[in-house]
């Protein structure tokens, strides 16, 4: 899934009453009778994609993309008993780095790259979290099904900004902060290990597609690299496109990379960087240190798209790669 460039839409959140009060006097009486700690039953949200009264405590929430489902779990929101997953690249169930206990009784259904609105409707959600609003037709179809929080999680920015905004909108800042604290603790732990090991590697997110090797900062890779204070290959941010594509004649530009990270589909144990006949026919490629030493870490492609469990899992992969 490619990142779409579209301006992220701010969301105005406010607590709403569960019932419309029919008169000022009735409202005053209700206020007198209600416990001071009573919480509103709905949250009013409004943005360019529409307005909705979202349940303050959803019982059957649905994440329209897998990253949305992971966010729902992290924020402590109860799931509908069916949730979408990718329908390509070998996916038949949820990513293995997701919280499996929360998904134990949840049935997956394919919802990407083709969207299955019939299955969404069948899931009978009372709330939908949709991060795919780069496609402006999706909110139009989801809004009538259930109250939906629509936003563009793939606008090229740090996904954690959207995560934070979602938590604030849904009154789940405590759960957001708990994840943030846990993540930062792991970052600090791994940084300490790297310092103690006395290493200073150059890392990169690398891919091979259409006959070219790409070095980029797509997804979460550079976020984690930056958090750990690692040196990132200068090729990753060499232009405004966010990727440097190299022909087979330019592979010597990769010589400074110590560890490469690349994505694979489900069940793929080795990546194209390791199995491509075109690359392996290049003496320059085979002579690169990270290739000779097999310093190529293959990660589940779903990690890179930006979600709490994905970011934590990628952090773990970096630790294993650099500190075996």
UniProtKB/TrEMBL annotation:
Pfam families: Peripla_BP_2 (PF01497). Residues 60-324 form the Fe/B12 periplasmic-binding domain. Residues 1-28 form the signal peptide. Keywords: Signal, Transport. Its main location: other. InterPro entries: ABC_transptr_periplasmic_BD (IPR002491), Bact_iron-sidero_bind (IPR051313). Belongs to the bacterial solute-binding protein 8 family. This is Iron complex transport system substrate-binding protein. It comes from Paeniglutamicibacter kerguelensis.
